[in-house]
Amino acid sequence: MTTGAATSTRKVGIIGTGMVGSSFAYALMQRSIATEIVLVDADPERAQGEAMDLNHGLPFVRPITIRAGDYADLAGAGVVVMTAGANQRPGQTRLDLLQRNAQICRDVVPKVFQHNPDGLLVIASNPVDILTQIAADAANVPWGRVLGSGTILDTARFRYLLGSYFEVDARSVHAYIIAEHGDTAVPLWSLANIAGVRLQDFRTPAGRRWEQGAMDRIFDQTKNAAYEIIKRKQATYYAIGLGLLTLVEAILRNQRTVLTVSTPVQGNYGVSDISLSLPTIVGRQGALEVLDLELSAEEQKGFQASAQTLRDKLAQVA
Ligand code: NAD
Prior knowledge:
Elements: E1 11-15, H1 19-31, E2 36-40, H2 44-55, E3 65-68, E4 79-82, H3 98-115, E5 120-123, H4 128-139, E6 146-148, H5 152-166, E7 173-174, E8 177-178, E9 186-187, E10 193-194, E11 197-198, H6 212-223, H7 225-233, H8 238-252, E12 257-266, E13 272-283, E14 286-290, H9 297-316
Parallel strand pairs: 1-2, 1-4, 2-3, 4-5, 5-6
Antiparallel strand pairs: 7-10, 8-9, 10-11, 12-13, 13-14
Helix pairs in contact: 1-8, 3-4, 5-6
The site of nicotinamide-adenine-dinucleotide has 33 residues, from helix 1 and helix 3.
C-alpha cells in the first residue's frame, strides 16, 4: 500500500481520448493550470491525433506540453483522469455499461498506480460511482486519493436550470444533487438557496416563485439530461469536460473547493461499502472531507436507496 502524499506536479494524465477525454483536454489547455498533458488511449492513433490537433492550438494559449503516451509516461502526474470505456447508446442507462467498463477499470487502475504511485486518480467513466468503488478497491491507497466525478455534472445541470427559472446567474444558485450519477440521484431541496434565501422563499423581481410542479420538472430534466442529449447527438462531453476542469483545478491549486465528488462512503447517513457523491472539500490530496449536512428524512432515505441500488449492481461484477 502506498501512503505517500499525492504529488504537487501540474502534469495531468488522461486515459481515454474520446469525446469526454478530448473535451476535457481542450478545456484544460486553455486554463493555464497544467504544465503537461499526457493522452493515453487503447487506440494510440486516436491519442496521437488528438495530441496533434491540440498542439496546433498552442500559438493561441499559454505554453503547455501536450503529448500522446503510454502508462509509463504518466509517472509524476499530479492527477490522472480516466475517461476510457463504452459510452451510453440511445435508450441505455449508465448501469448498462457496467460489465464492460468494470473490466476496463480493473485493467487500467493497477497500471496507473504502478507508474504513478503518488498521484490522484479521478474516474469519469460510467457508471462512475461503481467504477470509483472498483478503482478505490483496486488501488488500495488512502481514502480520498481515488475519486469520481460523481454528480458534479448533475449539480451543474440543476444549478443551470434553477438559475434560468429564478432568473439569476447559475453560479449564485447553491444547490446540490447527491448520491448516484444516474437514475437514483437525489436533489437536496432542503438546503437549496440563492444568496442564503431558501428557494421556497425566493421571488424574482417579476414575481416568479417556487412552484412544486416546476421544481419537479427541473429535477426530471436534470436527471434525464443525458438521455435527451444522447438521443440528439449520441454523447455528452462539453459540460463534463468543464466539470473535470473544475475538479482538476481544485486539486492542482489546492483550492479546498466544495464539489459533489464520488468517494467510498464512510458511514454517512448509515451508508458504507459503496461510492456515492456528497458535497466534499477537494484539494491537492484529493477528497479531503465530506461535509456533514442536515438532510431531510426523505433525502436521507433517497441516499440510502441509491446506495442499495448500486451495491446490488456492484455485487454483479464482484
Ligand atoms: P468515447 O467512445 O468517445 O471514448 C472512449 C475512449 O476510450 C475511446 O477513445 C476508446 O478507444 C478508449 N478506450 C476504451 N477502452 C480503453 C482502455 N482499456 N484503455 C484506454 N482507453 C480505452 O466515449 P466518451 O463519450 O468519451 O465517454 C467516455 C466515458 O465517459 C463513458 O463511459 C461515458 O459514459 C462517460 N461519461 C461520463 C460523464 C460523467 O458525468 N461522469 C459524462 C459523460 C460521459
